[in-house]
Amino acid sequence: MLFLCLLIFRNESVGVLASPIPAFRSISARILASIRVSQHSICTKFSVTKRISYFYQMNWFSKLFTSKEKEITDPMKKFLIVGLGNIGAEYVNTRHNIGFKILDYFARKEGLSFQTAKLGEVTEYKTKGRTLLLLKPNTFMNLSGKAVKYWMDKENIAKENILIITDDLNLSFGSIRIKTKGSDGGHNGLKNIQLLLNTTEYPRFRFGISDAFKKGRQVDYVLGDWDEEEKTKLPERLEVGSQIITSFALAGLNETMNIYNGK
């Protein structure tokens, strides 16, 4: 049927196709010469205009020119970037919310807006054939795994393509450690993710908040605001954090670790 469709645009004087589809114009004379249709076929009974009308009315022919195929994203080119934190105005500037803060910085930089969805705030970013789904769970820190698993399943994203951004007491302020796997390190958000995914093998980006607190004051410290010195240094660290997100999707985890670990 496709050959019949092509013949209705044939220019008999030069023996080539005058198709409106550029790819068809390059069909070689050898291929064209091999196409034969009886003089008594439908293409010889009607004028060119009527031939076009006839074929266009055929469902498959109409779809050839008018249908818009649904864009399909290769699962290996789709990524879930999760910033951990707690919802609520009282937590916005706390150390424990560095995951949210890095995603907010990235969104502002790229002109994105988060929308309320199931189990979190989400936005989508596309670059060079990659699709990044940014997620800020609204489950509170201790139930972060619920949101992570839901969006992984919903978007069919492999665990190798998720990146969990979290705070780390064991690293000095602003230090970066990106890993392919590891323990939860006592972090309740990572504990829940590990429980729900049933694995410790997923990429994570740990941002150092240091352990400059007195004995018994850990909760107050992680849920406390940044001090003035930290606030001064934070913008540059957020920029590095946003670069890590892009690098993870474009360059891959191993290359990103080589570039940014310890930076």
Description of the structure:
Helix 11 (228-250) packs antiparallel against helix 12 (253-260). The termini are far apart. The strands form 2 sheets. The chain has a 7-stranded mixed beta sheet with strand order 4-5-6-3-7-9-8, sandwiched between helices. Strands 1-2 form a two-stranded antiparallel ribbon. Helix content is 41%, strand content 17%. It has helices spanning 2-7, 22-25, 29-33, 42-45, 48-57, 59-66, 98-110, 144-155, 188-197, 218-222, 228-250, 253-260, and strands spanning 10-11, 16-17, 78-83, 115-117, 120-127, 130-137, 162-168, 176-179, 204-208. The protein is built from 12 helices and 9 strands. Strand 4 (115-117) and strand 5 form a beta hairpin. The radius of gyration is 28 Å and the shape is globular. The chain is of the alpha/beta class and 263 residues long. The chain has 2 domains: 2-66, no CATH class; 75-260, Peptidyl-tRNA hydrolase (Rossmann fold, 3-Layer(aba) Sandwich), CATH 3.40.50.
